């Protein structure tokens, strides 16, 4: 097996879990019932919390564990136990449900009606196959069940079906290359797999500490969820204005500190979920991110006094501060930082490869040509010969799926977007996507990090000479398949056959399609989206719309605010800062995760959840780690899963009460 130099912390994650000897099909009749349960009960809770609390609610994890707990208890009452493979399928199925594809329709209707999008001239050019015009939406009211929404809905359905098939294409090929041929360690995959088996209490697994750990986390999540989620949701359904014992999603201190920290975005979140995440995530990555945020808060006042952050005003809140700073400086500087991270990541990929090549070259004289040929044949055999235990299928079938999906997306994009050079789509499919995906798969396998090269799509659209906004909404084939390799590795670590995933999707996807659009409709009927009833969306969607419209302006006729905001000297400054920071910190012998955390944190970040996350990391490392030893690393993912489960249960109850209240109000009054 190839050897790679790893941080001690990553090496510990690598040894958390080993693949089992026996693989089974995890798809059973329980999966069908579970799919209905997810679609009818879990999905609306997830959609509601994403609008109220935002992504930090982590309903993805909560939904997975709510489902597993319920069916594990039902099985136990029937004197049966869930197999580890069945637990994985429930876990995977819940992840499918949490995608909530039609929730994007809520964003679509907001963007096309956004004041800023209309002022920028973007809303008027949004194609009807993505969202109807604003006047049509206002005329027809809060409903997706009209002819005007038929094309956007059909586009989402087709996209969902093809993307589900596509995950068994090039991503599977990369998994076979990096896992079977190159035998990379995938250090972060055991973290994802460890929680999946926490409740698999079979005769061979009697580690009852897992259940106790999960229960403690669940009770804490339930207690916190009452104040953070239930009280605002229920009071909002009964009163004109919801009661928030704890501010959602944060408290904004930006205007208050503007006198001594001008242009510094300052907000604090009180969601304790950040605390538990701090105990789970790698310690040095959190420390690095915190250092980066402190650097930003120190740098912004200097940039303001130098006249660089010229659009900032002392009365601006955190959202407008972020946007104005982005236009003045951070759009360019963050691009440079991301390019620096990309450069460093590519170096991390090619350095081991170069070393291995040199070692092979040095040993070439000791090996005959026949021996070298046999090694190459052995590697190809590992790629081409399928493992019947895992239920492998041919890589040639996977390549066929990849060719089909990309041909479909290119044809659809060319049909929807007239006048755009189709050669760029082919370049994405044949050159850019394979290169980025393999680089990401390599990084995931070596150090558990994904690769993202910024603004490639934006640069391509600008260089193409195309004028208009439609191209930004086209289903251009530029996914990153490298991330899928980790999912296949987790599947292997849990001893689950690949065919289980395929069966699960055939059952779950139709239910998801129906449930997602129905509950999107209900949420829109309950209140305007965004509005005070959905605090996170009310605060963050405006910033998202501004940033997106800024990017869309790059291909519009006339002057482009995006091109004005993009300054080469700031891009080079960001790239130089990132590379120098990485070099200096690496020379000091600091952990890789700290280095990446600092460089990433130097982009415009806010304290928001980093305060609680940092407290959780410090408490976990310097108190609980000393008390429980290395076993603490196994406790924390289960504690976080339990806490998320508790919050998820409260979210489900809250959204159920809110929906019932809205439905019964016309009958009562």
Short structural summary:
With 669 residues, the chain is an all-alpha fold. It has 27 helices and two strands.
Question: What do these coordinates show?
Answer:
- The protein is mainly alpha-helical and 669 residues long.
- The chain has one domain.
- The chain contains 27 helices and 2 strands.
- It has helices at residues 8-14, 29-52, 59-77, 84-98, 104-113, 115-120, 134-140, 150-166, 170-181, 189-196, 209-238, 254-257, 273-280, 283-305, 318-362, 369-384, 395-416, 422-447, 456-463, 484-493, 498-526, 535-552, 561-565, 568-587, 592-601, 610-628, 632-668, and strands at 251-252, 267-268.
- α10 packs across α20 (484-493), α14 (283-305) packs parallel to α25 (592-601) and α15 (318-362) crosses α24.
Helix and strand run: HHHHHHHHHHHEHEHHHHHHHHHHHHHHH
Determine the number of helices (DSSP H or I, runs of at least 4 residues). Answer: 27
What is the terminal separation in angstroms?
Answer: 71 Å
Number of strand elements = 2
The dominant shape is globular
In percent terms, what proportion of residues is strand? under 5%
Taking strands numbered 1, 2, ... along the chain, how are they ordered across the largest sheet?
1-2
| Structural domain count | 1
Helix/strand-derived class?
A: mainly alpha
Flag low-confidence runs.
1-6, 367-377
Helix content: 55-70%
Biggest sheet, in brief? 2 strands, antiparallel
What's the Cα radius of gyration? 25 Å
Q: What is the residue-averaged pLDDT?
A: 79
